[in-house]
Amino acid sequence: MEKTWNNKAWFMVLPVLLLVAFSAVIPLMTVVNYSVQDTFGNNQFFWAGTDWFVDILHSDRFWAALGRNLLFSVIILAIEIPLGILIALNMPKKGIGVPVCLVLMALPLLIPWNVVGTIWQVFGRVDIGLLGFALSALGLDYNYVNDVFDAWVTLIVMDVWHWTSLVVLLCYAGLVSIPEAYYQAAKIDGASRWAVFRYIQLPKMKRVLLIAFLLRFMDSFMIYTEPFVVTGGGPGNSTTFLSIDLVKMAIGQFDLGPAAAMSIIYFLIILLLSWIFYTVMTSSDEQA
C-alpha cells in the first residue's frame, strides 16, 4: 500500500516560521549587512568587505574579553554541574518533601535577570547590604566595586545561586526515571553507593547532563545583564565580557560596523564550542 503524505500541517507551522524569520533571520541579515559596510551617518554606507572582521580578530580588546568569558564559563561549569548532581542525589524521591524541594529549586529560576543583578548589587554593598556588612564585620576587606577578586567571586556566587537549580531539576528528572529494578539488583549484588552512582545513576543521567552542560555553557558565555548591573564591567575591565564590550562598542561608541562583525564572530564561537561539546559528549555516550 502506497503511503500518502498530508502536507496540511505545514500551513499550521507557517505562522511560526514567519515569526522566526521576522524575529531572528531578518535581524541577523541586518547585522551581516552592517558587518561588511561602513557609515559616516546620514544613512550613507560604504563597502568595507572583511576589514571589520580582520580588525576585531587582531584586537587585544576582543581576545581579552573572550578570555574572561571562557574563564567565567569554565568556573561556572566546574561548580554548577557537580553541585547540581550532588543536590539532586540527596533530594527525596517520595513523600511531601518532593514538591517542597522542587518548588524551592524552581524559585531562583523565576527571578528575572535584571532583578537578580539588582538583588546582588544591594546584597553585596558594604554600607547597606547584608553580605557586604557581614563580611566587613568579620574583618574581611570585601568590596566588589574596587577589588577584582571580590567582583569575580560575587558574580560567580550569584550565577551559582541563580542557575544551579536548573542543573538540579534536570538531574533529578533523570534520576526519577531510573526503574526501581536497577537499585534492587544492585542491592542484591552488594554494590556500594559509589558503584550505584557510577554504573546506574550517572549513565542514566548522561542525556540530561548533556542538556544541562550545553544550556549552562551558552547562558554563562552570553551573560550580560547580571554583571552589567552588579559591576558595570569593572573594576576597570576585569568583568567586561564579550557581551558587555559589544554593547559598549555598538551603543556607547556607535561603531556599528565593528560591533556587527564582533557579534557575528561571537555567534560563531558559541555555535562552534556548543557543537564540539555536543559531539564529544554524544560520541562518548555511544562508545559506552
UniProtKB/TrEMBL annotation:
Domain ABC transmembrane type-1 residues, every copy: 66-277
Pfam families: BPD_transp_1
Keywords of this entry: Membrane, Transmembrane, Transmembrane helix, Transport
Assigned GO CC terms: plasma membrane
InterPro entries xrefs: MetI-like, MetI-like_sf, Sugar_ABC_transporter
Membrane topology per record: Multi-pass membrane protein
Cell location: Cell membrane
TM segment ranges: 12-36, 70-89, 95-115, 122-140, 160-178, 208-225, 256-278
Gene Ontology annotations of biological process type: transmembrane transport
UniProt entry tagged with the keyword Protein biosynthesis: no
Main localization category: membrane
Listed PANTHER family: GLUCOSE IMPORT SYSTEM PERMEASE PROTEIN GLCT (PTHR43759:SF1), TREHALOSE TRANSPORT SYSTEM PERMEASE PROTEIN SUGA (PTHR43759)
Name by which UniProt lists this protein: Carbohydrate ABC transporter membrane protein 1 (CUT1 family)
